[in-house]
Design a protein that fits this description.
The structure is a single chain. This protein has 9 helices and 9 strands. By secondary structure, it is of the alpha/beta class. It has a domain of 226 residues: Spore Coat Polysaccharide Biosynthesis Protein SpsA, Chain A, CATH 3.90.550. The strands form 2 sheets. Strands 3-2-1-4-7-6-8 form a 7-stranded mixed sheet, sandwiched between helices. A two-stranded antiparallel ribbon has the order 5-9. It is elongated, with a radius of gyration of 42 Å.
Length: 335
């Protein structure tokens, strides 16, 4: 009897298992069918969007499209041309007026910069008592069209006793042009011209800018007469023109590191001697505008002369500017 009851219970358990399996199979089938339907709907939506975009896309560029492209290219070309014209205008001396007011709209005749150093106070005092006016006489000379200033840079240790000494001297005499961006050192001397012409232009509007060494005396009246006779001339580069051999041996005086640039003959081009050289306003402006790209050589007068070589500058060789000559009418002499 027990064995018969076990055989009767087995079909009932098998039927329940089959029903459960069938239920889960239906659920799985419904899940898979739903996902397939969603994927098909997504593919249909993407296909419709793609077809719509393709139908709106032009098959070829229209005339208007081509004109737009050409217009952009033409505008780009004109911008480049305008930039080139601006650079050319600057190189010819046209730039924004940034000079200080001098109390008058009249252009000065000359700005004379006397190069000096930290250890040259005695020389400066001698100059102030000889050819260079001081005090009220200096102001009166400026009213007449000539400005004279001692030109000096800053110490390598900014703000030290050397700088403070110059600032104190200038507070009393008011006859310095201090080049804040220039380091006053022997090896930096060739670069001093860039800072001098830029600073002089920024402070005074003059026809001529004159650089003078502190080891010469000036006949101020004779210099003024020469400058007045040259007044109105553009692109004037004046001085005692000289040449000379290029020294290519390290350790020798006047050694030129760039000696190989001067050819097989190793001779400098003609240039104004460094004791006294003069640039007209346009040439000084050229140096100011292009100072960042102007190369300097071992000597300042060579550097300035090289800048003038590539310009349409009028080189004026005047023996009256040769300070060591024996001419009676020279405007400078060794101190």
């Amino acid at each position: 009897m027990a064995q018969e009851r076990r055989w009767k219970s087995k079909p009932s358990q098998t039927s329940k298992t089959s029903l459960v399996m069938a239920f889960f199979s239906c659920v799985a089938w419904l899940y898979v069918a739903g996902r397939l339907w969603q994927d098909a709907e997504s593919r249909t939506l993407l296909s419709n969007l793609l077809n719509k975009n393709l139908s709106q896309r032009p098959k070829s560029l229209t005339v208007e499209d081509k004109l737009t492209v050409l217009g952009c290219k033409d505008l780009s070309r004109r911008i480049v041309e305008a930039e080139m014209e601006l650079t050319l205008a600057k190189s010819r001396g046209y730039l924004k007026n940034k000079r200080r007011e001098n109390g008058s709209n009249k252009r000065l005749l000359a700005v004379i910069g006397v190069y000096t150093g930290f250890g040259s106070r005695l020389k400066r005092n001698v100059f102030r008592g000889s050819w260079m006016p001081k005090g009220d006489a200096l102001n009166k000379l400026e009213e007449g069209g000539v400005v004279i200033r001692f030109v000096i840079g800053r110490s390598a240790n900014r703000g030290d006793s050397l700088d403070r000494s110059i600032d104190e001297e200038n507070r009393v005499t008011k006859d310095f042009l201090i080049l804040d961006g220039h380091e006053e050192a022997t090896e930096e001397l060739p670069k001093k011209a860039k800072f001098f012409f830029s600073a002089a232009l920024g402070n005074w509007d003059a026809e001529f800018y004159v650089k003078v060494d502190d080891d010469i005396n000036i006949d101020l009246h004779g210099l003024t007469e020469i400058l007045e006779s040259r007044s109105g001339g553009n692109d004037t580069y004046m001085g005692c023109m000289k040449s000379g051999n290029v020294i290519n041996e390290i350790g020798k005086q006047w050694y030129e590191p760039d000696w190989w640039k001067f050819g097989d003959e190793k001779s400098y081009f003609r240039h104004a001697a460094g004791s006294l050289l003069i640039l007209s306003r346009n040439l000084a402006q050229y140096v100011d505008i292009n100072s960042a790209s102007l190369h300097t050589y071992a000597h300042e007068d060579i550097s300035v002369g090289s800048w003038m070589m590539g310009l349409q500058a009028t080189h004026i060789d005047d023996n009256r500017f040769c300070c060591s000559s024996s001419r009676q009418d020279k405007v400078c002499s060794l101190a």
